[in-house]
Every structure is written in structure tokens, then in C-alpha cells.
Recover the amino acids of this structure.
């Protein structure tokens, strides 16, 4: 195996550490198929409070947190079946479409200062493009005759790592202005999905060179110092660094489907964060302190009667949507409305009595509304 990291006799060095390193660890966004289609979820870094952000019948996938944790860019086919780049606020509100081209647009990644997004577009072959964070000034960055995809911006904003198929899938890096394209890996097995450590000192990626299936490995930014982290027969993919640089989140098939797992940056302490029977994958870690701690409020309905429950602030219309995340400390008012021929018999769980219920969200809570025949 020969690892290439030289251009014109010069070694490619890693970007300097950013002023925000080390950061604190916030929420993890990921894709789940547990609702019967692809949805963007978020969860706390310990796997708790798993919450559907997108709640759309279309396929929503490839989430990428903005550097301040306020928004998530993602890919969706909700615009008539075509893949486009969208953004959504961290609480699931304010969905905005950024690309409108008939070609496929996917794999978004933010620049470190949050002003730009790089992504893949099929509008001139499969190449890497950049645009402003509001979708303006869309510019093609790579101009290769082969497929370039899965861009990831370096922490200092000067470089973009990506995967390219040139007879084999390999990891490359390019300057943010499109110059200085450099190959980092050179192996007969595939190399996919690069992700920069938050201090720019290493790149994690998925490779088939160790078991032919998929492991998470790390290397220096010049392609040297390759270390296999997962080293197991399972299919491991999509590594993402924690903002403090101490951990790596990834997707893995450990029990018949993909789940989100986490490990220390040296490969130790591997553990599941999700255990859904459906596939969970595409994880991305947000910085802490920017996304508020949230707790999930769940409403259930019991009894021989029928009715609905609505919340203020909005979010729960149970009936159809019986769970909603709320920021810690939020006071949620629940109101039960019996259907014709039924009466509201009272609350249990987080609520009591027969009137409107006020729930203060200091932890995950469940309130049960009982309806009886009139």
C-alpha cells in the first residue's frame, strides 16, 4: 500500500486549529427509517430524546449541522421527487429549499464560518459545488471528468476533502477555491466519506482495505499515519467527529440493521446510541451550547371513548402527532377535546384533574387523556 500526500514535492499539511476548538458536544442528527420512510432525527449525545425533525412523507437524509448548531442542511426529494438541498431550524421549524435545479443535488456540508455550503450536483457530471448559505451564488468547484462527491470542509475553511472515482474510490483534498487538488489515499480497496477532526489534525473515513466490508480509520491530513479504529467484521460507515475531538460517531450493522454507534477517538469504548429495529445512519454531531436541551412530551389516549389533545405552544395534535420535543423549562398547556358522543374523563401521568393541564418540561414526560362514552 502506498499512501500519496505529495504535490510538486511539497507535503500537504493539515489546517491550523480553529479558535473554537475544543468545542462542547451537542446533539447528534441522523437518518432513521423507523417511520416507514427516511426522516431526519436528532438526539442527545447519550442517545436520549430521539426526535423526528422533518416529519415529511418524502425522503429526508444526509443531515449536516451548521457550525453554530442553529440549523441542519439536508437532502430531500420533497420537491416532486428530485433531490435538492434544504435547511431546517434545529427545532424542526422553518424548512427552506436552497437548490432548484432539475439535476440531483445532495451531500451538503457547511463551511466553518457558516457562510457557505458545499454539496454534490449532477448538473455537469457529478461534481462538487459551493453556494452561499442562503442558496445564492452557486458555483462549480471541481471540474473533473470523473465522479467527485461527499465533500467535507476543513475546520479553518481553506480545504475540502472528498471522495473521487478514478478507477477506484479514493480520498482527495482540494483548496476551497478549487485549486491544488491532491490525492490522499492509494489502495485497491475503496475509500469513502472523509471527515476532518475539529482541530484539523486528522481525517476519519470509511475504508474497505482491512476487511473488504467497511471499517472506520483515521489518517493525518497528508495521508500518512493510517490507523484502523473499528477493526471488526461489521459494516461500519459515515464517521463524524464530536466537536471536542474526543469521540467519533458512525453507523454500523451490528445486529442485522444499521444503528448509530459512538467510540473514543482511539477506537476504544464502542457502544450503540440507537437500537431501533429500523435502519439509523448518516450521523452528524452539533456543537454544544447552541442547541438547547430538549425533552420529549408524549400524549397517550385511553378509554372506550374518543377525542383529541392539542398543545400550546403548538406541536402536539393527538390524533395524528402525539409526541413533541420542547426546550428545557418550557411550560406546555395540554387541552383535551372529546369527540361527539364522548366525554373527557380526566388526566393521569404528568397531568391530573379534568381541566387544561400545564406541564413544565424538566425531563421527558408522558400525559394520558382518558375519554369515556357520554
Amino acid at each position: 500500500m502506498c499512501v500519496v500526500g505529495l504535490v510538486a514535492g511539497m507535503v500537504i499539511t493539515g489546517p491550523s486549529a480553529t479558535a473554537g476548538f475544543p468545542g462542547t458536544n451537542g446533539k447528534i442528527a441522523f437518518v432513521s427509517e423507523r417511520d416507514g420512510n427516511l426522516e431526519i432525527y436528532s438526539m442527545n449525545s447519550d442517545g436520549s430524546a430521539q426526535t423526528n425533525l422533518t416529519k415529511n412523507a418524502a425522503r429526508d437524509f444526509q443531515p449536516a449541522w451548521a457550525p453554530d448548531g442553529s440549523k441542519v442542511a439536508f437532502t430531500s426529494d420533497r420537491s416532486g421527487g428530485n433531490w435538492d438541498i434544504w435547511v431546517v431550524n434545529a427545532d424542526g421549524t422553518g424548512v427552506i429549499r436552497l437548490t432548484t435545479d432539475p439535476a440531483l443535488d445532495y451531500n451538503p456540508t457547511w463551511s466553518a464560518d457558516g457562510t457557505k455550503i458545499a454539496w454534490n450536483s449532477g448538473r455537469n457530471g457529478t461534481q462538487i459545488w459551493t453556494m452561499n448559505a442562503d442558496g445564492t451564488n452557486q458555483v462549480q468547484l471541481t471540474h473533473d471528468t470523473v465522479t467527485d462527491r461527499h465533500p467535507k470542509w476543513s475546520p479553518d475553511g481553506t480545504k475540502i476533502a472528498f471522495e473521487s472515482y478514478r478507477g477506484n474510490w479514493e480520498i482527495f483534498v482540494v483548496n476551497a477555491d478549487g485549486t491544488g487538488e491532491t490525492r490522499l489515499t492509494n489502495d485497491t480497496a475503496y475509500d469513502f466519506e472523509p471527515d476532518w477532526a475539529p482541530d484539523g489534525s486528522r481525517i476519519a473515513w470509511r475504508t474497505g482495505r482491512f476487511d473488504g466490508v467497511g471499517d472506520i480509520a483515521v489518517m493525518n491530513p497528508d495521508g500518512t499515519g493510517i490507523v484502523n479504529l473499528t477493526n471488526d467484521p461489521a459494516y461500519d460507515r459515515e464517521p463524524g467527529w464530536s466537536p471536542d475531538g474526543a469521540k467519533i460517531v458512525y453507523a454500523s450493522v451490528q445486529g442485522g440493521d444499521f444503528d448509530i454507534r459512538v467510540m473514543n477517538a482511539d477506537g476504544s469504548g464502542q457502544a450503540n446510541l440507537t437500537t431501533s429495529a429500523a435502519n439509523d445512519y448518516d450521523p452528524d454531531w452539533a456543537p454544544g451550547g447552541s442547541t438547547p436541551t430538549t425533552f420529549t412530551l408524549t400524549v397517550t389516549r385511553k378509554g372506550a371513548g374518543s377525542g383529541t389533545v392539542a398543545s400550546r405552544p403548538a406541536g402536539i395534535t393527538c390524533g395524528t402527532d402525539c409526541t413533541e420535543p420542547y426546550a428545557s423549562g418550557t411550560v406546555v398547556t395540554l387541552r383535551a377535546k372529546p369527540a361527539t358522543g364522548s366525554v373527557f374523563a380526566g388526566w393521569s401521568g404528568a397531568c391530573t384533574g379534568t381541566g387544561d393541564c400545564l406541564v413544565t418540561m424538566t425531563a421527558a414526560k408522558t400525559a394520558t387523556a382518558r375519554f369515556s362514552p357520554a
In short: The CA atoms of residues 65 and 198 lie 14 Å apart. The first strand starts at residue 6 and ends at 7. The chain has two domains: 6-287, 294-373. Residues 1-19 have pLDDT under 50 and may be disordered.
